[in-house]
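Fold this sequence, please.
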Amino acid sequence: MVPLYRDQGVVLRTIKLGETDRIVTIFTQGHGKVRAVAKGVRKPGSRFGSRLEPTSHVALQCYEGRELDVVTQVETVDLLRPLREGYSILTHAMSMLEAVDQVTPERERNPALYRLLTGALRTLAVTPSPVVTPAFFWKLLSLEGFHPMLDACARCEGVGPFAAFDLSEGGVLCDDCAPYAGGRAVDDDALAFLARIVGGDVRGALADPPAVDVIGVVERLGVSALEYQLERRLRSAALL
């Protein structure tokens, strides 16, 4: 008998298959990342084609296959429609989906990452703050084992002041070490914001965000850190 299972998940991406089908990649709560065929979803009047769009949070029933599962039922848990109603908010949501897709192997459960992703998407849909995406990137890095060193120089362990962040060293560099390393220049405001979100004060940062340019610095640094760890580019991040 072909195993049948039910789960909840977030649609990460879709690919056309044939004339009427689609392959969907879904990050699920209980089965990790799965790829499944949704048959006939591109036909006019499909029962659940519109529910299987990137960012959608769905409950689904699937038959487990050797390489691809087969979706047989889909119900919407949270359509998260606001994420698809504006270009800027959509690009931020898609960058989070791509990051999850890149870091997760297939069929490996990761409940903490599932909670992080669903929480970040809901927050972005309700409160479209520029703080959400950089906070998500750095929380994801933390879950993957990358904890930036922010309270001492990553090379000499000096206590500052700090002038740069070096991805290969894994943290900040002091004024003395920065000229001799390949770090990226960062100012005190950016480091303070990074320390807030890494330290768990995301709610506070949402309520009292720093300047937009400061958020942008930390966001781009988060993208660079993810790409460094993955050893590949995040294509959607170029649109941020």
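The longest helix spans residues 212-230. The beta strands are 4-17, 21-28, 32-38, 57-63, 69-78, 162-166, 171-174, 184-185.
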